[in-house]
Structures are given as structure tokens and as C-alpha cells.
Amino acid sequence: MPTLYHISDLHFGRERPRLVQAVLEEINARAPELVAVSGDLTQSARRREFAATRDFLAQLAPPVLVVPGNHDVPDWDLIRRLLRPWKRYGRYITEDPYPTYSSPTLAVLGLNSARRWSPHTDWSRGRLSAYQMDEVARFFGAAEPGAVRVVVVHHPFIVHELAMGRGVIGRKEMALACFGESRVDLMLSGHLHIHHSETMAARTGERTLVAAQAGTTLSDRLKAGFPNSFNVIELDQERIRIRIRCWSDDGGFRDCERLDYRRAAAGWEPEPV
Ligand SMILES: [Fe+2]
Ligand SMILES: [Fe+2]
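That is the input. Now the predicted structure with fe (ii) ion docked in place:
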């Protein structure tokens, strides 16, 4: 089965060096088809943090698809934040606002949900825009018919009950309706530093898709008692299997949870493990 590694919230600047090495070794040994990175590459969008991220990504042997998170916009310099929010991300990581990966088995599209400012007092919140949905329709309209369809975006579509007070992505309903029309199967996100997965309907009564959150893979910014983690996802037209790999100081990364989904008439359904 094709395998996708989903890592997130690397937060270089607050990274744990042992974990950096362990993730590199595992991914390069397992050689998945793709590594998806769902944002917050850095802690404070500083040059040295982006350089460390770039060096880490360059050491990954498989193809890599990256989207930014709210921490990848300078938050300590309002002028830079408002006028040139993506300058460093573009210089060190990619200038492509719509990174894609296409093969006969996978069609993956990355979207930027981080914003330079927000109408909320909490500027870490993110949202999607109507013009980004045009790209969703265009990309998946041209996808291989046998490919599993995946969207990568930093902000979450689901919020774990322990992530108290955190909001879902802005314009969630608009995006879900578009994903449903484009027959998206799986959404990968981060931001909360809590691993979590469940199915959700694109619209009430319509087919369901799978939403998967990754924890913080490398950083010491742990939340709600959840360990560092990443997701190993095996997927084809019939099944999506998510294995969560959690870190412990004495055992390294090990499987700590598994969630299986099967395609049914009404979309994706959980399958007892
Ligand atoms: Fe984060
Ligand atoms: Fe974030």
C-alpha cells in the first residue's frame, strides 16, 4: 500500500535534537511515497530557524510537500508581518502557494491557512479563502482517477476535547463543501499539538471524509500531556490506516495508536481495529 508520512509543528528553534535524528532515520529507512509537513516549521520565523528547517527537509530522501503555519509569519515585527509576511518562508522553503504531489496512487494539494492579520484578537487563528477553493477544484479535477485525494493545511478541521478554547479553521463549512465536491478523501492538519483523527461530513448528510491531526513532531512545546508524535498513513481506494508514532525518552518513536477507515457508500467509515 502507498505510505505517506505526516509530520507537523516542527518548531525549529524549540526542536529536540534526538527527535530530529530519529525522524530522519525512520523516514529515510522506510522510504514512503511522500512526506507531508503541515506547518509551524519554525518557532518565530527567524532566519536561523528557517535555515535549520531547510537543512532538515533537505536530508529527507522522499519527496516532501510543505505548507506554512502561523508561527512561520514574523510575529515580533509588525511592519514585516504586514508588508512581507512570506518573504523568509519563500526564500528558505518554497514560494509555491499551492504545493502539489501527483502520482497514480496519490493526489495531494497543500493550502496556506496562516494569515498576516486576523479580525480576532488571536492572530494565530487561520482560515481559507474562496479563491483557494478554485485551486482545489482545478487540481482535483485533473487528478488521476485511481489516486487517493489528500489536502494538507495547518489549521484544524476538528478540535480534540482537550484542546480547550482552540477554534477550528475559518470558513470551515465553505472549504468542506468544496472538498466534498472535489471528492477529497483525507485532510491533514496540525497546530494543536494533539494527535487526533475522526470522520466528518462535507455537508450534513453527505459523504464523509477523514480528518487527521498530527502532534508536534520535534518540539518541546507539548500540549495537554500529549507526547511528540507523527502519523504514518497507509492508504488506497478502499482503506486508510493511520498509525500514530509517539515518542518516549527510553523507547524512541513507537506505535501508540491505530485508526482504520474503510470506504463505504456514504464515504469513509471507522473500522474497529
Ligand atoms: Fe504549532
Ligand atoms: Fe500553529
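The first strand starts at residue 3 and ends at 7.
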